[in-house]
Specification:
alpha+beta, three-stranded antiparallel β-sheet, 4 helices, 27% helix, globular
Length: 137
C-alpha cells in the first residue's frame, strides 16, 4: 500500500468522522487551533488509499524557538504504522535539532513510538498534566 504525503490542511482532520480521531485529540479539533499548528512550522498529512492516517508536524514557539512534535494518528492507522513511522522519521531528519513531545501517561503505544523515534523520557509535563514529556536532540 502506498502512503501519500502532502502539506497539512486543517480540513484533513475536520472532515474526519469523530470515531477515526483518537479521543485524546478531539479537544484540539477547534479550527483555530489547527490553523495555528499549520502555520507554526512544517506539517504534513499522510494518506493510505485516499484516507487520512496521520496529520503531524513541528510547531515552533515564536517566543522561545522551542520545537514541539505534534500528531493526530487515526484510530485505524495500525496497518500503516511502518510507513507512517518512516514519514515522521524523515520529517525529523529534514528538520533536525532539539525537539520535545508529550504523550498521555495512559497511552503506552505513544510512549513506545516516541522511543522508537529516538526520543528520551524527560519526566512529566508541567504544562500538560497527565502527560509524559519526551525530548530528542
Amino acid at each position: 500500500m502506498t502512503l501519500e504525503v502532502h502539506s497539512f490542511d486543517p480540513l484533513d482532520l475536520l472532515l474526519q468522522p469523530e470515531s477515526r480521531v483518537p479521543e485524546t485529540g478531539r479537544p484540539y479539533l477547534a479550527a483555530g487551533y489547527l490553523e495555528l499548528l499549520r502555520d507554526a512550522g512544517p506539517s504534513f498529512t499522510a494518506r493510505a488509499d485516499k484516507r487520512v492516517m496521520l496529520c503531524g508536524g513541528i510547531a515552533i514557539n515564536p517566543s522561545n524557538s522551542e520545537r514541539w512534535l505534534w500528531s493526530f494518528l487515526m484510530n485505524d492507522a495500525g496497518p500503516h504504522m511502518l510507513a507512517l513511522h518512516r514519514a515522521v522519521r524523515r520529517m525529523l531528519e529534514i528538520h533536525p535539532g532539539r525537539i520535545v513531545a508529550t504523550t498521555p501517561m495512559g497511552f503506552p503505544q505513544g510512549c513506545r513510538w516516541l522511543l522508537l523515534l529516538g526520543f528520551k523520557r524527560l519526566g512529566t509535563s508541567q504544562e500538560l498534566p497527565g502527560q509524559w514529556l519526551y525530548g530528542k536532540v
